[in-house]
Each structure stands twice: as C-alpha cells, then as structure tokens.
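tool_call: predict_structure(chain=1)
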Amino acid sequence: MLKIAYDSIYAHPLPEGHRFPMLKYELIPLQLKHEGIITQENLYAPDILDEEIVLLTHEKQYWEKLKNLSLTYQEEKRTGFPLSAQLVERELRIAQGTIDGCFYAIENGVAFNVAGGTHHAGSNWGEGFCLLNDQAIAANYLIHKQISKSILIVDLDVHQGNGTAQIFQNNPQVFTFSVHGDKNFPFRKEQSDVDVPLPDGVEDDEYLTMLDQKLDEVFDKAKPDFVFYLSGVDVLATDKLGKLALSPAACQKRDEMVFKKCLAQQLPVQVSMGGGYSPNIKDIVDAHCNTFKVANDLYF
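tool_result:
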C-alpha cells in the first residue's frame, strides 16, 4: 500500500503573504482522495521527532535557538517567516514523517511525505522556509541505526539543495545530486557531489535528455542501498520563482525516470514534495498529484 505522511499542522497558518503556498498541503490529499487514488488508510500522521535524532544532523546551538524561539533577527529573517512554537513542531513532525516513510519504502518500495524537502536548512542555519532538513535527518538516522550504508539524495527541486550539500560535504556514505537553476535562489551555492546548474528557460527535451544521462551517472557512482527523492514542481514553466520552462508532462516524465531507475535496481525510495509556486494553485496540486499517480501506477 502507498503510504503518505500528512498532518493538518503541515498547513500551519502563516501571515498573509505566506498562506498561498501552504494550501497545497491540504489540497494534495484531498485531490488524491477525490480521484480515488488513495483513501484515508493511505495517510499517516507522524509524531514529534525526538531531540536526539535532530542532533544527529543539526548543531546543538542552532537547535537550542529553534527550540527556545531565540533566533536572532537576521537568522529569523533568513528563514523567510516568523518563528513560533507551532512552526518548530511542524518541522519536527515533517522530519519524523520522512523517517517513518523510510520504513514504509523499505516495505513497499516507495513512500511519500506530503510536505518535506526542506533542503535549504544546513547544520546550523535555517533558510528559504526550511528550519530542519527532513531528508538529511532521515538519511543520518538510517546510517546511525545501521539500516543503510550508502544513500543517494536526488534533488530535482528548481533550487539547489544547499543545506543538504553542506550537511553531507564530508560524509562518503551520502551522495548528493542536485539539478537546479544556476541563477536562482540560493545565490550562494554549496557543493553537492554532483551539481547540474541549468540556465534560465530550459525546456522539456533538453532537461529530460540531461536527466537521463545524469541519473545513470549518479546511480553508478553512489551505488546506493536507499534513495531519497525531492520532487519539487517549481520546475514548471508556470512557476513564478522557477525560471525553467517544463511542461506538466515533462515534470511527470521526470518522476517516472527516477522511479524506474529505483525499481530497476530494487532500491527503496522516500519522496518529499519540495517547492511549487505557480500562481494558479491547481497547477501546483496537479503536478504534485501526478508524482503520486506515477508511483502508484509503477509500484502498486
């Protein structure tokens, strides 16, 4: 069964300017239910992540500032939204949902988190609407528990996974792969194991040809026993922040390529949804739902 982490706190209320992007967290499961792709049985609500697991990835001083709501003005500004206890709880539940998803992926081949993909959070900073790095936390958990020895993180959000790259820059057990807009946020990039910086305006054929080649390369280099996939839909031509020009069909084909690569090598894959900022919320929700549909068709 396809298992999906979702909690109502994912749609944490934010000030007026930030509410729109959060709507998708409510609408994605509703749309999937409406189309008969899932039922309530597919959804699970994660608990709050234990502090000791946070500290496998994030520095203690940074975590204490988050926990005590004591980020400096500049540190809070860098995150993009006002810090609150509910927001910290939200991030803890998202990260736990990604860890839980790892076990569902090991059991079923694939599992999802409706939220997550908080790849801008580094070991000692929050940035770009990310406070705790859910897939980095889950990867370190798998290694710490000796469940996995070699992990590949495939980050196809339009923004570089700078926090993920920084966290694992000296860890040979985690291979980081990021395809992103070269001139897009974050403007100070970190170094992944493989980075593919794309110029503005890249379209379907160029993107998919590149991805086909690079997936072969990174799977060969990483030789993973577990895969994390960050499936941001801010690569769409309709996205107001993305600067790329992919069609919904190409975005769906991208997902299919990743899943088929994992299936061919019998590798479990945990999927976090990442970004999406098209002006029409339907474009965002449809593209995210397509990722679920592709996985459901291939695995179940």
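agent: Strands lie at 3-5, 43-44, 110-113, 151-155, 174-181, 194-198, 226-230, 269-272. Proceeding to next step.
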